[in-house]
Write a structure and sequence with these properties.
Pfam families: Sulfatase
Number of strands: 15
Radius of gyration: 21 Å
GO molecular function, one term: arylsulfatase activity
Number of domains: 2
CATH class of the largest domain: Alpha Beta
Family: Belongs to the sulfatase family.
CATH superfamily of the largest domain: Alkaline Phosphatase, subunit A
Signal peptide: 1-25
Protein name: Choline-sulfatase
């Protein structure tokens, strides 16, 4: 049985700032690899019980380390969540409230900047989506803010989404965003060369599976830096639309229609590259000094979820919604020889927890002047706590469309305002008794509704002060 939080841990978790706790025993400062998929629902992985999807390497990673059964993205869409992974802060603190509406501020202290001060080599690979990666592309939505401005020594990145197969080519039949509803199949995708490597446009090795394209850049970085501690942030585009798989992966799912084959196939292709990474770490002999984290950035795609292709598992909602299906994501971590195999946690954890955890692992002292919203995951992984000990806040705002979704989880209760365009409604749910969010308790539990509403307002005000400059020196 896991114990309740002790007084020392509770003291650490009071308020927004959580200072590092004692770390797991390790031979030396570990390498850190942060892996993230894009729009992969909680149910879209074998280790969460999907009956068809083949994800053997992720399943083995979860089995060999810790599986987080209640892991939350900081927002129900990509850019805000990505920033939370790098800063340990709620997206509303740094002003990225939706996709393509801002860029990461240089005033934020990122995990890459932290680790570089600790002697780490730092590399970013994949979908950035926290600002434009080419200055000439930046326009009226967001601004130029590539990984190099935020602590990464080496980077291979796109600004936003690309097709998951042949990333520089528009898929046949694609009439979604960027197409003007016209089939531009076979034509260049947004210019045809979406990747930038250390500031230079990339024109070579961009064919086939996009996850393989990314991993082909990750492994040389690790090989080059295996003699020193390193941070590799690996953010795949899979399975964000345009969702395309190669024929060899589609054939793995002969009973599915074309859309399902592409969706399942590209996830299996990404899983294959995660397996390739894990195998290379073992081949280099550094797996026992390397921590791998994996999660998705939000729930499954709206359209694919509504068609029954993408899955939030048993949870209500999908991407762009404040329900559990929009926020809960598949997640696991592996550290051979340190994390006990077969560990499973149902403590509510989040993408904001990466920074305080990694700060602890690396010996970095978090700034007392900068509010950090996450907790150290190490006591969770060790089974020393049975609850989070502090609230979780989520937000998604695009006021021009009337979208202002927000949620607060306090213990097992969730206060939630839907992200409906044109205005939402506020609900109260008991997630322990009603994980499917079917019964609104706002009328039957008015005192709880009032207390959580006041707490939500306090956090929103704190975030607004951060967003308006309280945390930065001007």
């Amino acid at each position: 049985m896991m114990k309740q939080l002790n007084k020392r841990t509770m003291a650490c978790m009071v308020g927004a700032l959580c200072l590092p706790l004692l770390s797991l025993a390790a031979p030396k400062t570990p390498n850190i690899i942060m892996i993230m998929s894009d729009d992969q629902g909680w149910g879209d992985v074998g280790f969460n019980g999907h009956p068809e999807l083949k994800t053997p390497h992720l399943d083995d990673m979860a089995k060999s380390g810790v599986r987080f059964d209640r892991f939350y993205a900081a927002a129900p869409l990509c850019s805000p969540t990505r920033g939370s992974c790098l800063t340990g802060r709620y997206p509303f603190r740094y002003g990225i409230l939706a996709a393509h509406t801002a860029g990461m501020r240089v005033g934020e202290t990122t995990v890459a900047e932290m680790l570089r001060k600790q002697g780490y080599a730092t590399g970013f690979f994949g979908k950035w989506h926290l600002g434009w990666v080419r200055m000439e592309d930046s326009g009226d939505r967001g601004f130029y803010s590539p990984p190099s401005l935020h602590g990464y020594d080496e980077w291979f990145a796109t600004t936003s989404a690309v097709p998951t197969w042949d990333p520089g080519i528009t898929p046949k039949g694609w009439k979604g965003f960027g197409s003007g509803k016209t089939d531009l199949g076979g034509q260049p995708w947004k210019g045809g060369f979406p990747y930038v490597h250390n500031g230079d446009e990339v024109r070579e090795n961009l064919k086939g599976d996009d996850s393989r394209v990314i991993m082909d850049r990750v492994l040389p970085f690790i090989q080059k830096n295996k003699g020193q501690p390193f941070l590799a942030t690996v953010w795949f585009h899979t399975p964000h639309e345009p969702c395309v798989a190669g024929e060899e992966y589609k054939k793995l799912y002969p009973k599915g229609g074309n859309a399902r084959q592409n969706y399942y196939g590209c996830i299996t292709a990404m899983d294959e590259q995660i397996g390739r990474l894990r195998a290379e770490l073992r081949k280099m002999g550094i797996e026992k000094n390397t921590v791998l984290f994996f999660c998705s950035d939000n729930g499954p795609s709206d359209g694919l979820a509504k068609k029954g292709i993408a899955s939030a598992g048993p949870f209500k909602g999908h991407k762009h919604t404040m329900y559990e299906g929009g926020l809960l994501v598949p997640a696991c971590a592996e550290w051979p020889g340190t994390i006990k195999p077969g560990t499973v946690s149902d403590v509510r954890c989040s993408t904001v927890d990466y920074v305080p955890t990694i700060a602890n692992l690396s010996g970095y002292k978090l700034k007392s002047s900068l509010p950090i919203d996450g907790i150290d995951l190490l006591p969770v992984i060790r089974g020393e706590v049975s609850g989070r000990g502090q609230d979780l806040y989520f937000g998604y705002r695009r006021l021009i469309q009337g979208t202002d979704g927000k949620a607060l989880i306090s213990g097992n209760f969730k206060l939630m305002t839907t992200a409906d365009k044109g205005g939402g409604k506020t609900y109260l749910f008991d997630l322990e008794k009603d994980p499917g969010e079917t019964t609104d308790l706002s009328k039957s539990m008015p005192e709880k509704f009032k207390v959580l509403s006041e707490r939500l307002a306090e956090i929103e005000m704190s975030c607004q002060l951060s967003r308006d400059g309280a945390d930065y020196k001007y």
